[in-house]
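Re: that backbone. Tokens:
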């Protein structure tokens, strides 16, 4: 286990220096600017266009900022770059020769690549969660203050201003209501199971497709697994955006299928790496 973690640490450090840190920093910065720019109240209390800006909740700000596309692009970029890195190890004679002759089992080498990509993905989600969590407080405060400045023209001709627009449990409700937040950062066990099982399938299929280059069919099969994994991980967002979501049964069955496939691909990859003869 110590050897596996040592190799994982090396792969993670090398990947972050080459590609990872730039992708994470760039996408998080762009996402920060998009959410903050869209969430800033615009206009004045006398302006009718000010109303929708003043009364937007954080889930509306996040969803209407379209930041989910930046998040998805960053995640896909990380996976593609990790795939390219692993392919270079597999096809480069010196690289694969060095890895296969390490004083450790070949199954451990495969597990190190899986742990490396898992760590990269978890870190990416953690950075985005921290960014969105921190943004909630200033944007909510700005919207609450802006809502108090709105002048209401009542039917009897009188006006009302200075209404208390304080939000209660706004952060929790945002992660429940937002299509993007509830998909990427679930607050329920069922949603978390869907996300974890889908991403697990994506990760192990990406690693196996990159390292096991002997057959084209294997790579095509792993590509199909990656597509399925992304669908399972993003099922809530996809169904909310394009159809009627059937939360309980569909999520349970899809999560179970993805988890079984992920375990199967992991075992298959470890067996294939152990049987590999060419270095």
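Recovered sequence:
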């Amino acid at each position: 286990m110590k050897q596996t973690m040592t190799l994982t640490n090396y792969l993670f450090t090398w990947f972050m220096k080459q590609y990872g840190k730039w992708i994470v920093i760039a996408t998080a910065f762009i996402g920060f600017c998009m959410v903050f720019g869209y969430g800033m109240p615009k206009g004045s209390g006398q302006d009718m266009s000010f109303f929708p800006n003043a009364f937007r909740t954080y889930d509306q700000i996040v969803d209407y900022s379209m930041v989910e596309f930046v998040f998805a692009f960053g995640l896909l970029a990380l996976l593609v770059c990790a795939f390219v890195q692993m392919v270079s190890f597999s096809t480069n004679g010196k690289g694969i020769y060095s890895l296969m002759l390490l004083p450790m089992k070949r199954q451990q080498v495969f597990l190190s690549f899986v742990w490396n990509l898992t760590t990269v993905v978890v870190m990416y989600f953690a950075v985005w969660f921290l960014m969105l969590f921190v943004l909630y407080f200033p944007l909510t405060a700005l919207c609450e203050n802006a809502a108090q400045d709105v002048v209401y023209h009542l039917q009897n001709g009188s006006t009302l201003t200075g209404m208390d627009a304080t939000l209660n449990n706004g952060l929790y409700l945002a992660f429940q209501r937002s299509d993007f937040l509830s998909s990427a950062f679930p607050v329920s066990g069922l949603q978390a199971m869907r996300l974890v099982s889908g991403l697990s399938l994506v990760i192990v299929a990406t690693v196996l497709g990159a390292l096991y280059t002997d057959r084209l069919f294997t790579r095509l099969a792993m590509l199909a697994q990656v597509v399925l994994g992304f669908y399972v991980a993003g099922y809530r967002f996809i169904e909310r955006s394009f159809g009627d979501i059937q939360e309980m049964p569909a999520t349970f069955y899809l999560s179970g299928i993805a988890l079984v496939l992920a375990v199967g691909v992991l075992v298959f990859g470890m067996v294939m790496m152990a049987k590999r003869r060419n270095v």
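Residues 47-52 have pLDDT under 50 and may be disordered. Residues 106-148 form the longest helix (43 residues).
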